[in-house]
């Protein structure tokens, strides 16, 4: 079974059965005999607590002190009473709805266990005929440490032979919830959320549970399925960080997380306005510093938190934590790129207040964000709106003092913040009719309600990343935005997104959740692209700082392909970004005692930040990935100015580095030793197949670019001898192949590594924190698509039989520890006709963030996976391949769908692909007719 949740561990009392009343009656009998006070309230303290501890609760309540042996004697007596009382247990004592729920889980093949501190769990289950549902029963007799110690759940997981990562706990007591957390398991509280604040989610009725949502991501239900919206209907404290990411708005230049407008110190919110490229530094404390080790850790910083408005009505301040609300709803409108919110607040003095907010981060004016806060309160109420802009906001990933306020104008309209490298200007303006005053850092608006009161807040940010005139830029842009007004900004935003959906949407009929997941992915993918020459897209875009704002190969290999085939004009700046940090890459090559340029594996401004050098710096494939992106751009756009200029310079410097890194080995040829491929569980491997094939392609392409540069009469920065060396390296590149099995070995040693029982390895999570590196490096377990990725990216080099062999060999050894993995498996599975795998991996990709599949979306969206999502449909189901002999498609229709359709831009021609059960349709929408292949046949698209 491939679900994220594969075993469910239940507490017994209050979760599956109610033995509470028998415990109560047992204690009551004892207490009455002893003349102690005991009632429901005292009993509450005894719930979920072992026997002796329960007795202590009663003794404390009665201020009675007893020696230990007497306590034990009395606890045993109570137990005898309890056992006697249990004889009365009957079906009415089973938790309503739990039996159908257990049956559904059984049908899905989920393993189940009871993990109850009660020593009488087994007789209870037997008496009620429930024992048959459970593969294991762990009771108080089996453990030494009671909850909140994780022992009982860890034993439960072991008894059902499941890794804790794939277990989900149902608990009704706080100590049990804490025990589940301590066992690193997800936990659903059975009871009211106020009573179980630490549970991920709570239920009171098992019938509410959507089994697929539960098994997919350990949640009670999925969010409402809608074609163009993503909506939060329930306020769940433990889901705030998820929604902050899901509702994060960005334009690639800056982004703001979807926190509520009103402040509430009691709430664990993570507000962040992240400005692309603005980062802080902190020295690494290496225990033993080696040459080439990175000096500093760097991380994107939180800048001014501007999207705040506090509301008071007649002196009562609204608090999201405590306010009485008859409704609360937030919805991201993907069609227009606007976040909307609406709630009705019943104040303690009985006023009904309607609040509507709208927020946008403008894709048209990349310096601008705006929000509207509209209040409808009964006539005559005094409404005050306090707009806060917190200039210095702590960053979770770099909490030190990294940001200083260096300028503040009198009216508080323009401020300047300074970081280690940059200066950032933030400016704000308002529009509202009413009295206003400014008290230092906040603006206060006080109005008397007569109808609707609307506050529009405009925010501008610009930094030294935007050039010298950044302060004026912030001010001018702010002024312009204020002048056009909020409604016009919304209209512009809608027009921008309408254009994007025209150019890049994937329409899916047949499964609304798939449609929603795909659009949500495309939305976040598009809004991450800054389209500025000195900035790229980090692994989380600007939706969170989980990856500290670092840029990886994710951009070139996973995000850039969807952009190039939908809106190619957005791609050049991403390549310009690499050029802007080429000097840093040159410095890095020197630090690594190499030639040319080595781009840093993870970085904001070019300096290497990855301290796990074996799975960062060693991923030299990044260079060929950048080359792959340049080649793709070159082929699709024919932009010689870039390719033969900056592109060529980047390529030549990267070739210099990689050619120098390699060596010739007798019987093999040109080898790249001690590298790390995409599979980061390996270390210092020789001849990673992906790395070598990609390097060969880079050398060959660079040689061709060199010839074009010379033909154009430009003096290249490299000599003919150097270029000849790249040609030789390409011609003699060693690509591992195992004659015996017909497999492409991932590297020289992978096939000889220790085989692993994959049932013991958790899936969909990075296992590096769980296994000592010396053990991991020996294991035949793959983190993410590596050979499988190669079979897609350079599919033209492999036969179908080879692809089959490799897929069937590597997929079962892959734990998909990275979100970059399922998409590539879906694509290859589609090609090979493995329909179930193709669809399952597609769903994991498309629902990765919207379903919070890995439980870490709170840290930001998985940007590479967003691009991977586009690829699973276009390159996967539709089978699009852009091979040297031309563009081809091999479309299939997933069983769950009746139709899908998307546009493609290819070398200036735009056409639409539509796939239904009747076949595929290709329709030219603009540009020159195209010659393509569909299922191997020549087709003219006209
Ligand atoms: C993956 C890398 C990826 C990085 C950032 C890691 O877990 O293994 O391939 O570049 O995440 O997304």
TrEMBL record:
Its EC number is 5.4.2.6. It comes from the Bacteria. The active site is at residues 11, 13. Its cofactor is Mg(2+). It holds the Pfam family Hydrolase. InterPro entries: 6-hairpin_glycosidase_sf, 6hp_glycosidase-like_sf, B-phosphoglucomutase_hydrolase, Beta-PGM, Gal_mutarotase_sf_dom, GH65_N, Glyco_hydro_65_C, Glyco_hydro_65_M. Keywords: Isomerase, Magnesium, Metal-binding. Substrate binds at residues 11-13, 27, 54, 78, 116-120, 147. The keyword Cytoplasm does not apply. It is an enzyme of class 5 (isomerase). Belongs to the HAD-like hydrolase superfamily. CbbY/CbbZ/Gph/YieH family. This is Beta-phosphoglucomutase.
């Amino acid at each position: 079974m491939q679900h994220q949740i594969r075993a469910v561990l239940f507490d017994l009392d209050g979760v599956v059965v109610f033995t509470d009343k028998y415990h109560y009656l047992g204690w009551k009998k004892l207490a009455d005999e002893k003349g102690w006070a005991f009632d429901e309230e005292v009993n509450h303290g005894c719930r979920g607590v072992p026997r002796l501890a329960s007795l202590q609760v009663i003794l404390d309540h009665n201020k009675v002190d007893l020696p230990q042996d007497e306590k034990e004697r009395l606890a045993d007596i109570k137990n005898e009473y309890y056992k006697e009382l249990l004889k009365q247990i009957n079906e009415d004592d089973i938790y309503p709805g739990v039996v159908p729920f257990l049956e559904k889980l059984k049908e899905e093949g989920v393993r189940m266990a009871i993990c109850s501190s009660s020593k009488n769990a087994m007789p209870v289950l037997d008496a009620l005929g429930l024992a048959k549902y459970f593969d294991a029963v762990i009771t108080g007799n089996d453990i030494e440490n009671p909850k909140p110690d994780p022992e009982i759940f860890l034993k439960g997981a072991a008894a059902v032979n499941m890794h804790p990562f794939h277990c989900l706990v149902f608990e009704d007591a706080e100590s049990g919830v804490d025990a589940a957390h301590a066992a690193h398991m997800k936990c659903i509280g059975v009871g009211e959320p106020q009573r179980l604040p630490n549970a991920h989610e709570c239920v009171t009725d098992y019938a509410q549970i959507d089994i697929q949502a539960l098994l997919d991501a350990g949640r009670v239900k999925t969010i409402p399925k809608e074609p163009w919206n993503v909506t939060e209907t329930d306020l769940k404290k433990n889901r705030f960080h998820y929604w902050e990411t899901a509702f994060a708005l960005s334009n690639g230049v800056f982004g703001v997380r979807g926190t509520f407008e009103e402040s509430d110190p009691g709430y664990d919110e993570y507000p962040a306005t992240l400005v692309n490229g603005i980062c802080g530094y902190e020295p690494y404390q290496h225990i033993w510093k080696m040459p080439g080790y990175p000096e500093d850790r760097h991380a994107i910083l939180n800048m001014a938190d501007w999207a705040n408005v506090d509301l008071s009505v007649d002196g009562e301040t609204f608090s999201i934590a405590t306010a009485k609300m008859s409704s609360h709803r937030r919805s991201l409108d993907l069609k227009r790129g606007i976040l909307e919110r609406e709630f009705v607040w019943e104040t303690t003095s009985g006023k009904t207040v309607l609040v509507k907010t709208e927020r946008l981060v403008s894709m048209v004016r990349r310096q601008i964000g705006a929000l509207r806060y509209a209040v409808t309160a009964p006539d005559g109420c005094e409404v005050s709106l306090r707009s806060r802009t917190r200039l210095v906001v702590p960053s979770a990933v770099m909490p030190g003092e990294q940001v200083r306020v260096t300028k503040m104008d009198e009216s508080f309209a323009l401020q300047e913040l300074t970081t280690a490298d940059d200066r950032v200007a933030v400016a704000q303006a308002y529009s509202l009719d009413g009295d206003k005053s400014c008290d230092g850092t906040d603006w206060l608006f006080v109005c008397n309600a007569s109808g609707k009161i609307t506050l529009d807040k405009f925010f501008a940010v610009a930094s030294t990343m935007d050039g010298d005139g950044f302060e004026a830029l912030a001010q001018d842009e702010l002024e312009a935005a204020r002048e056009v007004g909020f409604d016009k900004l919304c209209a512009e935003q809608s027009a921008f997104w309408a254009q994007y959906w025209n150019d890049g949407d994937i329409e899916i009929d047949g499964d609304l959740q798939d449609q929603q997941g795909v659009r949500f992915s495309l939305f976040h993918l598009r809004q991450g692209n800054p389209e500025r020459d000195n900035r790229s897209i980090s692994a989380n875009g600007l939706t969170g700082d989980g990856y500290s704002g670092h840029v990886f190969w994710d951009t070139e290999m996973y995000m850039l392909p969807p952009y190039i085939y939908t809106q190619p004009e957005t791609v050049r700046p991403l390549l310009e970004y690499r050029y802007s940090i080429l000097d840093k890459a040159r410095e890095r090559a020197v630090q690594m005692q190499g030639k040319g340029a080595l781009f840093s594996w993870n970085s904001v401004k070019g300096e290497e930040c990855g301290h796990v050098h074996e799975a960062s710096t060693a991923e030299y494939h990044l260079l060929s990935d950048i080359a792959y992106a340049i080649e793709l751009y070159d082929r699709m756009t024919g932009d010689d100015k870039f390719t033969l200029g900056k592109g060529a310079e980047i390529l030549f410097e990267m070739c210099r580095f990689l050619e120098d890194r390699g060596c010739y080995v007798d019987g093999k040829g040109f080898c790249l030793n001690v590298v790390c491929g995409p599979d980061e569980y390996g270390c210092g491997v020789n001849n990673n197949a992906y790395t070598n094939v990609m390097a060969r392609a880079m050398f060959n392409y660079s040689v061709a670019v060199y010839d074009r540069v010379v033909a154009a009469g430009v003096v290249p920065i490299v000599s003919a001898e150097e270029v000849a060396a790249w040609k030789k390296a390409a011609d003699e590149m060693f690509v591992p192949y195992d004659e015996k099995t017909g497999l492409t070995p991932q590297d020289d040693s992978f096939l000889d590594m220790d085989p692993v029982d994959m049932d013991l390895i958790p899936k969909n999570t990075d296992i590096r924190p769980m296994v000592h590196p010396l053990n991991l490096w020996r294991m035949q377990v793959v983190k993410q698509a590596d050979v499988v990725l190669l079979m897609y990216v350079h599919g033209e080099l492999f036969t179908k039989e080879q692809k089959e062999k490799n897929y069937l060999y590597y997929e079962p050894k892959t734990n998909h520890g990275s979100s970059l993995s399922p998409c590539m498996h879906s694509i290859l599975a589609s090609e090979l006709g493995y329909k179930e795998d193709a669809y399952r991996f597609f769903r994991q990709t498309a629902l990765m963030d919207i379903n919070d599949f890995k439980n870490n979306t709170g840290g930001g969206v998985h940007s590479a996976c967003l691009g991977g999502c586009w690829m699973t449909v276009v390159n996967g189901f539709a089978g699009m391949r852009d091979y040297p002999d031309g563009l081809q498609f091999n479309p299939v229709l997933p069983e769950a769908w009746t139709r899908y359709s998307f546009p493609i831009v290819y070398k200036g021609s735009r056409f639409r692909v539509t796939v239904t059960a009747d076949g595929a349709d290709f329709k030219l929408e603009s540009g020159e007719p195209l010659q393509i292949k569909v299922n191997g046949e020549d087709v003219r698209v006209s």
